Each structure stands twice: as C-alpha cells, then as structure tokens.
C-alpha cells in the first residue's frame, strides 16, 4: 500500500508538472510584444505609434498602459516578432484620447493572431492637444493611411497579410475610420441637423475642428487597402453626407452604447450611420448597459474617486450600467468584433 501511495503521489506530481508546462507553453504562444516609435520624424506631421504583435520570445512581460486609475496589460517590450503572416488592425482613439484607451482590445486581438498598430493623432490626443492642428481634421484619417504606408514599407511588411486589413476607432476615432471607409463631410447637412437638434458637446468639437468651414477636401480620404471597419460609439455622425455613406464599399460594424451620458444618444449618432449604410454585410449592435466610456480600458477599484478628486466630473469615464462589469462588456464586445473580422462576408 505504501508503494502504491508513493507511485500515486509521483503520478499526481508528474501530472501537475505536465499541466504547468502546458500552461506555460500556452502563455508563451499567446505572448504579446509591444513597440513604441515615432515615424515620419522629418515630415510636417511626425506620428507616435504603438504596435502590438505575437511573440514567442522568452522575455519578461511587464505591465503596459497601467497607472493609478486604469489597469494595464502584460506585454514584452521590444520582444522579437513571432514568424507568421498576420491580419493587420489599425486603431484610432477618441477626442483627447491616446493609444492606451484600446490597449485591452489590442491585447485580446494579438492573442487571436492579429498584428495591431495605433497612432496618437496630433492635435486631438491627450498629450498633444492643439486647436489649430485639430482644425486640420482631414489629417486624422490620413494618419492611419500614413501608418499603413510605413508598415508596408518597413521590416513589418513581410509579416502583414495585406488582404486582411481592418480599422477600429472609438468615439472621434469611430468618425475617423468612417472617413477611411469612404464617408465624406457635408458641413451644410451637419449644421442643418444640429440647428434642429442642438448638442453642445458635439458642436464644441465640431467648432474646434472647424467642420463648419471645411477645406475643399471633402472626399477622397478613403483607403481602399482597408476592407473592414469597426466604429465604437462614434460622434459627429451627422457631419457625413448620406449619399457618401450609401456608397461605402468595405464591410462596416457599428457598435453603440445604450446608456446616453448626455451628449451621444445612440439612435441619433451610431444609429444614423447604421441606417444609412446599404451593404448587406454591415452589422449594428447596441449594448444596453454600456456607456460611451465602456469601450475604454478597465478602471481600478478606486479610479472613480481618484479621477473625481483630480477633476470633478472625470470619474464618469469609469461608470458602466448597473448589473454589469466593464470586463463583462469587454468580453462581449471582443467576441462580436472577433466574429465580424473573421466572417467571410
């Protein structure tokens, strides 16, 4: 009996060791690398970009995009890229946002086998806010196209599946990726709508970007290399001409927040886009318990109080609907996006 117990204990030990090794292998295979760099340094508009990618290197991962208020994710900085040919996703942040806002989504997508690149848009980012630069609104979609140009002519090019390029944007980033899809700005239509349906928050952004007095470049910002678009609770939807929305060719998924924070009613903004699109491959979904900020990174336990102490009203970015956690919302959002990106329609 004693020998039997010894053998049984040894078997259990070996089984646990095997499971540990398998878990380690899975973790290694799903490891995420990250790089930050500035491209087009010598141009009129240098761009700070962040790239997430699969890596199999045994390099220690550290928390990235983590601070006192927001949870980060694990990534190995400057780890070598795992050999492969990956679908590419380009990310666009919201008004006064930055690459960290969709860090959670980038992390999950890399673990599914994607290569992700995000740009901090000059003039409308957290750390580079300038009204004169923001007024050059057409540069936002061009930032994404220029990032794609650079990737396709760099060491990354051989790892990118150029037949599978998508763009995802949140808030003003959602507006930006719609321009990449082929939407064009119609200043008269925008003014007519918001005169009848005033929205001070959206109009203040429109005024800063000078959408009432746009440059002659009202069209031609689409990028035919991008074949799928995901818009996350966008604003300024009525700055687009309906005619241009009806002619969009890439497949589009429009996701909206069901809880209005006071300036982005989903039916008026995301719903307008969804109703205007004509392709049968388009998708539209509302998350009833999500707010506009539910699409951003996870908040830590004391984040609301911390942000309110710094600036009253800022804590709203950590509020979601009752009876649901942001992590649960992220899981549903990710599953919907993943299904859309992999569908062959």
Features:
alpha/beta; 11 helices; single chain; 345 residues; 2 domains
- In this structure, how is the largest beta sheet organized? 10 strands, mixed
Q: What is the N-to-C succession of helices and strands?
A: HEEEEEHEEEHHEHHHEHEHEHH
Q: Gap between N and C termini, in Å?
A: 63 Å
The CATH topology assignment of the largest domain is Rossmann fold
CATH superfamily of the largest domain: Alpha/Beta hydrolase fold, catalytic domain
Secondary-structure class: alpha/beta
Largest sheet, order of strands side by side? 3-4-1-2-6-5-9-10-11-12
Question: Mean pLDDT, nearest integer?
Answer: 90
Pfam family, one: Peptidase_S15
Keywords: Hydrolase, Lipid degradation, Lipid metabolism, Signal
GO molecular function: hydrolase activity
Protein name: Dienelactone hydrolase family protein
What would you say this structure looks like, in words?
- Keywords: Hydrolase, Lipid degradation, Lipid metabolism, Signal.
- It holds the Pfam family Peptidase_S15.
- This protein is of the alpha/beta class and 345 residues long.
- It has 2 domains: 27 residues; 312 residues, Rossmann fold, CATH 3.40.50.1820.
- The chain has 11 helices and 12 strands.
- The strands form 2 sheets. Strands 3-4-1-2-6-5-9-10-11-12 form a 10-stranded mixed sheet, sandwiched between helices.
- The N terminus is likely disordered.
